[in-house]
Amino acid sequence: MAKLNVNGRVVEVAVDPDTPLLWAIRDHVGLTGTKYGCGVAACGACTLHVDGQALRACSMPVSAFSETQRIVTIEGLSPDGNHPIQRAWRELDVPQCGFCQSGMIMAAAALLAEKPRPTDADIDQAMTNICRCGTYNRVRAGIHAAVRAGTSG
């Protein structure tokens, strides 16, 4: 049994300690916005926040986390889906198929929390998520739009 603090709520999950955090969140907590993409932390579809830092959840075992660490999934980023990044994504039609976008949004939100006015070079360095549709230019535009709109979401 592991205790995790997910989106401000402590939950108990009955999983093997080696179970990746991704599967505990999806299968046991029931939050399916965090996606499985590659299983080796390369693509970023599984990105969520742990204590404000972007983390790829598919390769980190549940045993690496405690209930004192704040885990935030895409569902917990904004109670109404109106975080400035989410608004910018909608306004600019950033996603194409959308599969990778919850991870992209979480990575972008972590970037803006760390660097409220990122340069293109900062964005390129931080946004290492893979988008099969290739919407990288719209991702960059969405981040800049969120900065212009204010990132206090």
Write the layout of secondary structure elements.
Elements: E1 2-6, E2 9-13, H1 21-29, E3 47-50, E4 53-56, E5 70-72, H2 74-77, H3 84-91, H4 101-114, H5 120-126, H6 136-149
Parallel strand pairs: 1-5
Antiparallel strand pairs: 1-2, 3-4, 3-5
Helix pairs in contact: 3-6
Describe the structure concisely.
It is built from 6 helices and 5 strands, in the order ββαβββααααα. It is α+β, with helices and mostly antiparallel strands. The protein folds into 2 domains: about 1-75, Beta-grasp domain (Ubiquitin-like (UB roll)), CATH 3.10.20.30; about 85-150, [2Fe-2S]-binding domain (DNA polymerase, domain 1, Orthogonal Bundle), CATH 1.10.150.120.
Largest sheet: 5 strands, mixed
CATH fold annotation of the largest domain = Ubiquitin-like (UB roll)
Q: Report the average pLDDT across residues.
A: 95
Helix-and-strand structural type = alpha+beta
Total strand count, please? 5
Query: In one word, what is the shape?
Result: globular
CATH class of the largest domain: Alpha Beta
Helix content: 25-40%
Oligomeric state of this protein: single chain
- CATH architecture grouping of the largest domain: Roll
Q: What portion of residues belong to β-strands?
A: 5-15%
What is the element string, with H for helices and E for strands? EEHEEEHHHHH
Nearest-angstrom radius of gyration? 15 Å
Q: In angstroms, what separates the terminal alpha carbons?
A: 33 Å
Number of helices: 6
Side-by-side strand order of the widest sheet: 2-1-5-3-4
Count of all domains: 2
User: Which parts are unreliable, with pLDDT below 50 for 5 consecutive residues or more?
Assistant: none
